Amino acid sequence: MMKVILDVDTGTDDAIAIMLALLSPELDVIGICSVNGNRGIEFTTENTLRVVEYLGAAQVPVHRGCVLPMVSTLSPGRRINIPYTGPEDPEDNVHGDYVDLPPATIKPAPGNAVSWLIDTLMESEGDITLVPVGPLTNIAMALRAEPAIAEKIKQIVLMGGGCREANITPSAEFNFWIDPEAAKIVFGSGCDITVVPLDATHAAAISIEDAKELRRMGTKASVMTADIIEHRWNGYKNWQPMDDINTVPVHDALAVCAVLNPQVLSPVVPVHADIDIGGGASDGQSIFDLDRRIKRAVPNVKVALGADRALFSKMLKEILGGNGS
Ligand code: BDR
Ligand code: CA
């Protein structure tokens, strides 16, 4: 079994990512860290607990993580309304404040996710994969507090950024935009990093027909996933319609599937990547030097430029529909 730690800002697509990881027999989820992102930390932690409890996985610890991005809220005007503590933005039809599940009765583990990450990684045999699908604050804070964890991380498969796509400003993707400094620190860590950007998640957008099929499968996870996909589609079709209007991206789930089967991402290219932390119009933008403009730059990530939609859809159905949970 592959040991993984998820880092999430649950979040509807985060919820699907969590369910995939918990239900995959190949994965041993040793813990889940929450982080500020789609909503404030109380919301993302509660949502994470709800999903874990829903699947009867209370033995998997949930560690409450960072409340704020590293520095991006310090400059007046650079970031507003962070953390989001509700009430729900009436214009946000995609994420909602809470996932549509009963309040959690289980509690987060004591302490902070950053300390837990450091302790867990330092005590490990270098066999843990990190799957961050929210802003990279927890991972970057851990790297700052104990840089030696970089050599202990087997690989990082993260959702964030875009080569030719953006979704929060004309140039930036949400996770990196919330905490650009954190993303820059992670990119500079020397870890084995696979980036699952918007280019890949949009290429693998899931259809309303897929949602119907998941609903027919009738498991707790597949029905909830169908609900989420339909809910997201209702928001996306007006806010950011895909080329095929009947589809919607389920970003974070693709990162978990990429851990399970790297072939779901294609093509994947080694590249030098950086993040704009300048605070200007392209703040938080991911820059992938695909044409090798910087001659001496060494690739520091592998980036997925596309994805196999059919394989992704098949994996969702097999994992979420197959376990009867
Ligand atoms: C990312 O932003 C979040 O809103 C989603 O959960 C996903 O991780 C997509 O840009
Ligand atoms: Ca997320």
SS-derived structural category: alpha/beta
* CATH fold category name: Inosine-uridine Nucleoside N-ribohydrolase, Chain A
Reading side by side through the largest sheet, how are the strands ordered? 3-2-1-4-5-6-12-9
For the record, the CATH class is Alpha Beta
Distance between the termini: 20 Å
In this structure, how is the largest beta sheet organized? 8 strands, mixed
Instruction: Using the alpha-carbon principal axes, give the shape.
Output: globular
Order of helices and strands: EHEHEHEHEHHEHEHHEHEEEEH
Which regions have little confidence, pLDDT < 50, spanning 5+ residues? Answer: none
Keywords: Glycosidase, Hydrolase
GO molecular function, one term: purine nucleosidase activity
GO cellular component, one term: cytosol
Pfam families: IU_nuc_hydro
